[in-house]
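Review form for a predicted model. The reviewer records the input and the model, then writes brief findings.
Reviewer: anonymous (R2)
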Amino acid sequence: MGDHAPILQADSVSLRFGGIRALTDVSFSVRRGEVFSIIGPNGAGKTSMVNCVSGRYRPTEGRILFDGQDITRMRPSRRAALGIGRTFQNLALFGHMSVLDNIMVGRHHLLNSGFLRGMVYWIGGAQREELEHRREVEEIIDFLEIQHIRKAQAGTLSYGLRKRVELARAVALRPKLILLDEPMAGMNLEEKEDMARTILDLNEEWGMTILMIEHDMGVVMDISHRVMVLDFGRKLVEGEPEEVMAHPDVRRAYLGEEDATPAEAVPA
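Model under review:
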């Protein structure tokens, strides 16, 4: 799982929209090389927290550190360049473009070609760079086992395959930390199993740290190293899956079963 130095740290993060408190004084850390899941009921503040990490929202109070650097006020593009990748709850693919081109878009910020090099497009520079990016994208396509759809229009694919393509596009940055917002929502059992295996492979084989929001408790328990529970924008508990699921506040707030044991509360 890698060393225990935190790659991401949230210190007393609060977020308000007018009079509405989306997050209140939330602190947590994600260790380098782990799968860290955020769970909680609808409206608990999970996506708000991930949006604060990605830069879509700026915390009202508190700060966020990535790799020891304060990123609280950085633009999302700058965070991406530092090594934070993300997928979205609602698919954000270009439906008219091929799978290959969608993933190439994910590498766009890595293209170092200046304006003049782009205009001239000389063989010694920009074309060679383009070829390197294409090779990298082909490796990602192989890794995620989507070779058979590489030339297909993204908009024509099934929901499960579109989610894989979106993950491929986030992975194209080769991020140190990848933010997954409900990667298995709307998937059937087989698709969920495939996605869970892929996330573990990204973590174990490619060394990516994963911060994930997911509703499927079976998946969370199976693949997470640690879990944080949010409820009404506040942190209830953070720890290893078994201890989190055994916590009485979690059973009350999340499972709604006061006397449930962890074995009963979590489907096998």
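Findings: Strands lie at 6-17, 20-31, 35-39, 61-66, 69-70, 84-86, 177-181, 209-213, 226-231, 234-239.
Further findings: DSSP finds eleven helices and ten strands in the chain.
Recommendation: see findings above.
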